[in-house]
Amino acid sequence: MKALELRVGTQAAAKLSSEGWHADLFDGLIGASGGPKWLILGQMDRVLCTELFASRTLALPAVGSSVGSWRHALMAQLDPVAAFDRFEAAYLDQSYRSTKPKIAEITEVAAWLLRSGLGENGERHVVEHPWLQSMVVTARGLGLTKQSKGPGLVTGMACAGLANAITRRSLDLSFRRTVFAHEATDPQEALFSSLRTDYVSLNCQNTFNALMASGAIPYVFEAVTDIEGSPMGAHWDGGILDYHFDLSKLPPDKVWLYPHFSKRVTIGWFDKFLPWRANQVPETSGIVTLCPTDEFIASLPFGKIPDRRDFGKMPEAERVAYWKHCVAESERLADELHELLTGSDPLANAVII
Length: 353
Description:
The protein is an alpha/beta fold. The protein contains twelve helices and ten strands.
């Protein structure tokens, strides 16, 4: 049974076929939201850092929301493998005082997780990285969603979800996509054209808060209300607007790498509840997706990869054992990625889309 699925758009396949895998092949990197689902990608991320990107020379825009942006921040560290090791260990070791922790406690633990991965000077390494240009996506609240808590926020989120069912463009009424970006990065209009977008330069003072905001799930984490360079008000999880991102407008002459936990994508968080938008299989000419096969996922305990619902469904010891088992199994993805990067056929077993 294959663990890793390589899904490649037609134009990306032509470039891979002619050039093979090399450090400067890609024009961009995408990191999706997904909370604990990142655990299935961590071993592959280490291979990407140490093997594919080790000799990178060209600038690489790294667009991420929520934990996707956190993964990119770990990649930007001087020793990314050590950063992933620290973050993974902390993530597996996280615990709470009760089975229904308060928002303040969850936020406190999240800040500890992020600091564990970044280390003492991690923000500076993100800002000053020689080629990885982080773009941290957040959703800044407007109107009722500008509030950080209370019944007004509940009403605002409900209205945003209902309006989104009619048209995604309606999200502009409730949120302003705010991207905290490396100062040298060009606006990525191909990914962001569907909604209005503000850009704020990443610096050592706002990087940590921007990353925290990018993962601030309403009703789960506290909003981040004060981020240098951006207007005051609640900044929420970037996945609200860009859960797995809209890949449909990526230009065919650019090649983007998308390590993902599934071959299926759901553009925005509210779209999860809309059967006609959820779990779509994109057909994008310039995309290279690395994801676990359906068979691999089915072989895991409970037939799935870790997700946030595990906290409420399993006793802590059972959840930790299950997560550790999934991490151990994900080494198969890393091994197959290594074989792909070093093999003679850059499109071995690829699915051309």
